[in-house]
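job 3f2a | input accepted
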Amino acid sequence: MIVLVVFTLVDENAVVIMRLTIRRPVHQLSIGPYTITALSDGLSRLPPMFFPGLDECAHDTYIDDDGTVHIPTGCFVIHSADATILVDAGLGPLTLPYPEGIPVAAGSPTPALSEGGRLPDQLREVGCDPADIDIVFLTHLHADHVGWVAPSGRPYFENATVMFGAADWDVLIESAGDAEPGVAGMKAARAAGRIETVDSTTRTLRPGVTVEHCPGHTPGSYVVIVSSASQRLYLLGDTVQHPLQLNDSSISFLTDTDVALAHRNRGQLLRRIEDEGAAVGMDHFPTGTFHRITSGNPRMWTTAD
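job 3f2a | predicted structure (305 res):
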């Protein structure tokens, strides 16, 4: 919430003549003792080639006027009286240009491929200090999910343990150069003794908060499940990257390490979520809100209350 106070001067005394409260939309969902808040660290403008199988002509409503698909760099805060967990850590304070050979967004000057840096302000707006976070769970180790782990060489979330799938480290961090976005920060977190890897099929982070291995996009990709009694919320990371993947299994993502495995696990997971009537949060869903799956032909995304 932002409060704007306008003053006028009367005999050298400041007198409030108007108080205007502007409420920014905050997308939250409650599951038992947990409140889950959807945040965004920034925006990426991806040319359609990033979504192999996407029919641009049939689905042009997903293409912005600049010729790209706009997606948020999503993160989620899971909060209760006993724990605060950040799921994914954005791109960090970076602006990334388009690599050579990649179609660029229309505009003059050319817009950036990706812009990060909003997460600290968004955390403050929902009353969360970086020091409040107990666990940073990374659904996988791509640059747009690890940026605030240690952007200046020091852990940004000073009291948090950084957790992620063990299978991603060698492929995405150890074998990459330190100049690659996010790599130096992850290595700095390891040097500071702040990381903990997960190599099991499932792992409980806190009562009612579990993570589940779901490889394909990367070898170490996980989803996060928040549950209480019959209520369930799945935070999918990049297991689903585009709304059309709910019905169109031909759409993949350019950086999927195993397209067939990603397709198989995504399909199984979406059917399970549909059967359970669970809510869903996706890092790159254009609206940045929580959703459910409505059964039908085709199935539909509907906003979760």
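job 3f2a | The CA atoms of residues 24 and 297 lie 35 Å apart.
job 3f2a | closed
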